[in-house]
Write a structure and sequence with these properties.
single chain; EthD_dom; alpha+beta; 4-stranded antiparallel beta sheet; 4 strands; Alpha-Beta Plaits; 111 residues
């Protein structure tokens, strides 16, 4: 899998709950149609290890089969719609991408 990872923080005039509701609701609705999107995991940040990490509200991992599939999604009208929707939000974010490697896998027979 090739992943686009988004770490995001809400605008100062939004509550954490409002931001998560927007991300998992209105923004999700314009993100689901991305071409080639194979998986989307979202984590609501509920606690942080240190003060520098407390300003973030959530992490999304959008997974594609390849870098080429991600590039095609980023060039699509669906991506443009998602970007326009984020423009309404005004929070801050970090976007990074790379190849996924499973480091530990849960064996369903032993869990």
């Amino acid at each position: 899998m090739y992943n686009l990872i988004v770490l995001a923080a809400r605008p100062h005039d939004w509550s954490h709950e409002q931001f998560i509701q927007w991300w998992r609701g209105e923004h999700a609705d314009v993100t689901y149609p991305l071409p080639g999107l194979r998986r989307w995991q979202h984590t609501e940040v509920l606690d942080a290890m240190d003060d520098r990490s407390r300003e973030w509200d959530g992490v999304s991992i959008l997974s594609f089969d390849s870098r080429e599939d991600l590039d095609a999604a980023l060039a699509s009208p669906e991506w443009q719609a998602a970007v326009e929707n984020v423009g309404k939000m005004r929070g801050k974010r970090i976007l990074v991408m790379g190849e996924e490697k499973t480091m530990v896998e849960v064996d369903s027979a032993t869990s």
